[in-house]
Amino acid sequence: MMRWIPKSGSGRVLLAGLLLLALYTTTIEPNWVHVRYQKIISPPLARVLGKRVVVQLSDLHSFSMGFRERQVLKILDRLQPDLILLTGDYVPWKGDYKPALEFLSRLRAKTGVWAVMGDYDYSLSRQSCRFCHKPGTGEPTQAHSVRFLRNSVERIDLPGGSLWLGGMDPYESGVFLKRKLDQLPADQPLLILSHSPLGFDWFGFSEGVVMLSGDTHGGQIPLPAWLWKELGYEKNFRYNQGVFVKGSNTLFVSHGIGISHLPIRFSRVPEVVVLQFVEVDPEGFPYAQHSSSSHLMACHLHSGREHEVPAGLSSRETGF
Amino acid sequence: MRCQPASRAERLAFDFESDAELDHFFWSCHTLFERSTQHASRGRYSLRVKLYPSRYPGISPSFRIRNWSSYKTLHFDVFNPAPSTLTLYLRIDDAYSSPAYEDRYNGTLRLQPGLNRLSIALDTLETSGTKRTLDPLSIKRFALFLNHPREETTLYFDNFRFLSR
Fold first, then answer.
1. In sequence order, which residues have a C-beta less than 8 Å from that of residue B12 and are 6 or more positions away?
2. Which of B23, B28, B32 sits opposite A138 (nearest CB)?
3. Closest CA in chain B for residue A128
4. Interchain proximity A125–B27, CB inside 8 Å
5. Which of A30, A121, A139, B133 is packed most tightly, with the most Cβ within 10 A?
């Protein structure tokens, strides 16, 4: 029984370190929910949303209304968001949908809550209907007030102006959403939700689109891009996390809240994202990295203030 | 309880006597499934399908039978309660990657008012453009749908079964 404990001091230190790392990655970090303040440069959206609290939540993968979910709700209660935008994967693969539906029922925002579906949400297609409908019927659900956008567009009217919010469905071609977007008046503030960041590829260079997505979990652990490519995870290889700019289009990829595949997170803390739409970034791009395509830049606009908390919200209230 | 046991040469796929069978259908927007005691052609229940105006509303069952090579035909019954003939479209893929129109089987089925007993010959399934025979060991999708219906349409399906060679 005691044979697995190394005899040497350095061996014991190594074992202790590995055990602590295992504890941290499986138990501590996956439940350590942070608030991430993310700037997005978009003059049209800044004019409409600049003073609003806009929150993005992604990839909940909720097995139960557990500690993590309660922390997220606590944070939202303090942020008092105007809009909550959800980018999919609320449930575990072919799991129980009830915890996620209960979580959705507790979301509150002054203007509203909008969402798109993720691929996991369709894993039990019959259950997926419950996101929008009463079970077994075509009537709208009364279980929550989240508005799901399935390759559809809605106009949101705010005191500062209006914006168009579009949602891309993961199992239908993006061309159907694009056709609807093409019918909108030109130069209107446009925000797109897409679970997969690969939805960004449906847009060219000059649509002035801002897209929010998730799906990647930031890999859950940091791996080099080439390894994601070798493993066949194109989305992680190309759009793992952060801000990506292509012409006048911008993509932000959140690394989400929950976990899937492996029950670990390391250096990818669960995040509630508060989006700050600005007309210009007064500090310029603090870090810009050219990808293999010269026209595509991965821009990290964190400015060292990734986990800044606003006045009135103490560090104890970041969720752990 | 099934009133008509399957014959030896027949492999029953769906008769909708159990609600659990509905989990083997792909549920999507603009289509509503429920079991009904109306117009059952086998047992007590049929599958009532409401198809709402949209692009291609329909049904896509996931047959638990993967290897179709030992079967000669697929049979199923459809009750059309409307007073007029309806065209139902059929699509069968043998690849996961949602093949183009030319590289899958595409067919049409004319539904007369009332009960329609339909059958599909499985050894003559040919793709529409590339003119190759579908691989019966690799059937990935089977879909029955309407093409841009303008009105809500209700159909009753029952008795999906494969007949052996």
1. B6, B159, B160, B161
2. B32
3. B27
4. yes
5. A121
A137 to chain B: closest CA residue: B32
Interior CA angle at A277 toward A272 and A279, to 5°? 160
Note the pTM of the prediction, 2 decimals: 0.85
Cβ <8 Å between A138 and B50: yes
Q: Which residues pair with B107 in a beta bridge?
A: B90
